[in-house]
Design brief:
Beta-clip-like, binds zinc ion, mainly beta
Length: 159
């Protein structure tokens, strides 16, 4: 039985919502999909259509066809992606009650220098634009690094 449901979102098309409570630190789902090199990614018309998750300097995880393609970004996320032995697990970083959207901060997995998109998350602390991890305020970078929701290829730059 699924603990997640896909719902329509007025601005973003789709969003993933929790069907049950998740405890802080609980794994929500593993992200999967084909691993592709940067030059193998087809040119995209709109940044919103980008389903490619950066998992290495020149390595991306493509769409899986599952819920993991639809989790939206927030500048005030309730989840984060934890890398474990080259696998990626969306994990609650606070208590997530049933009925709540599950959101993570895309900037935690971005180190590209040439890609950004406008943010529509609507949070009071919204940064306005989603861009590379290195551009986050230092306190926020440290928070995310401490939570363990930054992939190795980025976190290694801050050791
Ligand atoms: Zn935002």
């Amino acid at each position: 039985m699924s603990s997640l449901i896909l719902k329509d979102h007025p601005l973003l098309g789709k969003t993933v919502v929790a069907l049950r409570n998740f405890r802080n630190g609980e794994e929500i789902m593993e992200f999967s999909g084909p691993q592709v090199k940067e030059e193998e990614i087809p040119a995209l018309q709109k940044p919103e259509d980008d389903r490619y998750l950066q998992i290495g300097r020149d390595l991306y995880l493509g769409a899986s066809g599952g819920f993991d393609d639809f989790f939206n970004h927030s500048c005030c996320p309730n989840a984060g992606l934890v890398e474990k032995d080259g696998r990626f697990f969306l994990t609650a970083i606070e208590e997530i009650p049933a009925g709540e959207e599950i959101l993570w901060d895309y900037s935690t997995y971005m180190d590209e220098r040439d890609w950004e998109m406008d943010c529509l998350c609507g949070e009071k602390i919204c940064r306005g634009v989603i861009r590379d991890f290195c551009f986050l305020p230092e306190a926020l970078r440290n928070k995310y690094l401490h939570l363990g929701i930054v992939p190795k290829f980025i976190a290694d730059q801050y050791r």
